């Protein structure tokens, strides 16, 4: 299993830590910019280390179709929509995790998945 596969546990963890992860990403970008200004390599390294878990949360993919959880399917412009890689890069980015995958409709909520599979 890939570290990018969004299991129910990982998606719930990402949903819980979305706001702190967003702040960590913004502060890390500021730290990297600061390290460039003061010419301190270790500040940039520390900022990148702080940003890594946050980037991992925002890079989760749907377990059913492998579409990125925080990207809206079908929003890329016509020029990039046909390419599998570029469609993901040019699609609309969400800051809050949706309840279901925008491509296949797979639910990201654990309780909804259990109720669908129960007899």
Tell me what the structure shows:
55% of the residues lie in helices and 0% in strands. The protein has 119 residues and is mainly α. The chain has one domain. Helix 2 runs antiparallel to helix 3. The protein is globular. The C terminus is likely disordered.
Question: Which helices and strands occur, and which strands form pairs?
Answer:
Elements: H1 8-16, H2 18-38, H3 41-58, H4 78-81, H5 84-89, H6 110-117
In summary, what is this structure?
With 119 residues, the chain is mainly alpha-helical. The protein has one domain (3-114). It is built from 6 helices and no strands.
Q: Helical content, roughly?
A: 55-70%
What value does the Rg take, in angstroms? 17 Å
> Regions with pLDDT < 50 over 5+ consecutive residues?
112-119
* Global structural class: mainly alpha
Descriptive labels:
globular, mainly alpha, disordered C terminus, 0% strand, 119 residues, 6 helices
């Amino acid at each position: 299993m890939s570290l990018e596969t969004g299991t129910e546990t990982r998606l719930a963890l990402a949903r819980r830590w979305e706001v702190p992860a967003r702040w960590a990403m913004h502060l890390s970008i500021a730290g990297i910019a600061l390290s460039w200004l003061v010419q301190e390599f270790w500040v940039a390294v520390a900022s990148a280390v702080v940003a890594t878990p946050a980037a991992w949360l925002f890079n989760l993919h749907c377990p059913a179709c492998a579409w990125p959880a925080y990207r809206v399917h079908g929003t890329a412009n016509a020029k990039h929509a046909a390419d599998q890689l570029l469609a993901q890069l040019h699609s609309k980015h969400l800051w809050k995790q949706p309840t279901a995958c925008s491509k296949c409709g797979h639910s990201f909520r654990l309780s909804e998945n259990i109720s669908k599979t129960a007899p």
